[in-house]
Amino acid sequence: MITRVALAGKGRFGSVVLDEVLMAGFKPTVLTRSASTIMGVSDGVPVYEVNYASEESLREALQGHDAVVSAVAGTAIASQKPLINASIAAGVKHFIPADYAMSLKSTEVRALPPYTDVKEIEDYLRARSADIEWTIVACGGFLEYIYDLPFLIELDKRKIDIINEGDIPFSVSEFRTAAKAVAGVLQQPERVFDHCVQVHAMTITQNGTFDIVRKYDPNPDDWTVNEEDAEVKFKQGMDMLQRGELTMAAVTTLMAGEIWGGRCKVAFEETDNEWLGVQLISHERLEKILKSKVTKVLAALLLTRLLAITDC
């Protein structure tokens, strides 16, 4: 039975995980590099300041814990090895790495360059499966992030590249979706099959997204729409990365070609939503999210134009 849970990382997603773990009845501990910067922690939840590069520091903080949930930032994914080693040394039973996107079944996607660090940690855990149980919580793309990236639609430029006709479905989740799945895994770890669970809040498409955006845009025809081929898009992104352009533009170009190309399954046909207590969200909820994004972007564009006029 898992009772005490250590949470590594309390950013936007980690904060939601902490709430769900508390509501599920676990006794959480927050690990952080700087205790003075941690805010919004409920009374009675211990906060330990640790050195994530020091196994000794981590092992001391993890004594007596049953599980570790990693919610470190994407730039810190490769640095989880000391945390894994310390978890094993401290007798932790279960480890959930910071790997909240594509499923282990999505082998084509996970073999791509943007997944290098994620795959390295997966292999590291596989090699230690005899010492600790571990689970990847696959939840597709986070709705809190994906509309800020240009791989789906570029709200700030009022531009969309419709790839392969724009009807490929893609699994997406809110932070709350994945956080509930984390709590569900900790409640029933014996039900996890092959170190991975799949959950999502819904599936989306490029065309479906664009329809909603135009619904809430006062000038719905004032958009640049390009028809793109997935293979061409994918090659453009791969070429950029191979030239050493390790940029978000290169990554999003590559992933746009892969996600919207239809070559691999990026919409979970089977999910673990039911036994993990994860609910789907409604189309109205998606509309609310997109309406908020559109409103903010249009307001920012208007302000920029007004400032430009004023400067003239």
Supply the number of structural domains: 2
Structural class: alpha/beta
| Tally of contiguous helical segments | 12
CATH hierarchy class name of the largest domain: Alpha Beta
Assembly type: single chain
GO molecular function, one term: oxidoreductase activity
Domain NAD(P)-binding: 9-142
Organism: Talaromyces amestolkiae
Keywords: NADP, Oxidoreductase
What does this 3D model show about the protein?
This protein folds into two domains: 4-141 and 173-198, Rossmann fold (3-Layer(aba) Sandwich); 155-169 and 202-267 and 280-311, no CATH class. Helices cover 42% and strands 15% of the residues. It has twelve helices and 13 strands. The strands form four sheets. A six-stranded parallel beta sheet has the order 3-2-1-4-5-6, covered by helices on one side. A three-stranded mixed beta sheet has the order 8-10-12. The model has no long low-confidence stretch (mean pLDDT 93).
Q: What's a quick, concise take on this entry?
A:
This protein is of the alpha/beta class.
Quick tags:
12 helices, 2 domains, Rossmann fold, alpha/beta
Write the layout of secondary structure elements.
Layout: E1 4-8, H1 12-23, E2 27-32, E3 47-49, H2 55-62, E4 67-70, H3 81-89, E5 94-96, H4 107-110, H5 116-126, E6 133-134, E7 136-138, E8 141-142, H6 143-146, E9 159-163, E10 170-173, H7 175-187, E11 196-198, E12 202-204, H8 206-216, E13 224-228, H9 230-242, H10 248-259, H11 273-276, H12 283-311
Parallel strand pairs: 1-2, 1-4, 2-3, 4-5, 5-6, 7-11, 8-10, 9-13
Antiparallel strand pairs: 10-12
